[in-house]
Amino acid sequence: MVFGSDGFFGYGYSSSSPDEPERHLPHLIAKPGAEAVWWSTYELASCLDWRNVDREDAKRQLIARHSSWKNATVRKIIESVSIDTVWPTWTIPELPTWERDGMVLVADAAHALQPSSGQGTSQALEDCESFVLLLAHYLKEGYLHPSTTQLETETEARAVAAKKFVEMRMPRIKEIQRRSAQIGNMKKKMNVVQEMLLYVIVWIFGK
Question: Strand, helix or coil at 7?
Fold first, then answer.
């Protein structure tokens, strides 16, 4: 992954060598194959229909951003590439709550994180485990001190667990959203001060 003042460029192998006999084993770092994947920054003021994005404009912007970069692989890619697919990045507006009357939203339904966060799946799993543990706890308390009926006991336990879940998880998600927005901004065009700050941040991450 290469960062610069004009944006961001990532590339890597997307296939393993057919000569690698155990290339499908998940723990193995196999020899690379012949296919590669790349991705880069493409900015639009608005995107009403991502299916009809101007591929030629995307290529022009790609060349304008990266043609002066010294990275030989990046230059080789942009000199020969044809753009077949443009994938949008979707997020959702921040919701005031993820629960109502015991009904709970988790994972992307509650907080679709930017891909730059690298935390989408991780936070979905944390959501699920957190809510299950809270629900088990408050159901156990409810059964020890039941209401008039079992339905009322379980309904009250579910409602309390849902509220506690939001109170506990929302601050963590907001912090991840804030950090991922910062990382996302590192992929846009920057002035000299922002570029220098980027290099300092990357150097700190490296340490």
Answer: strand
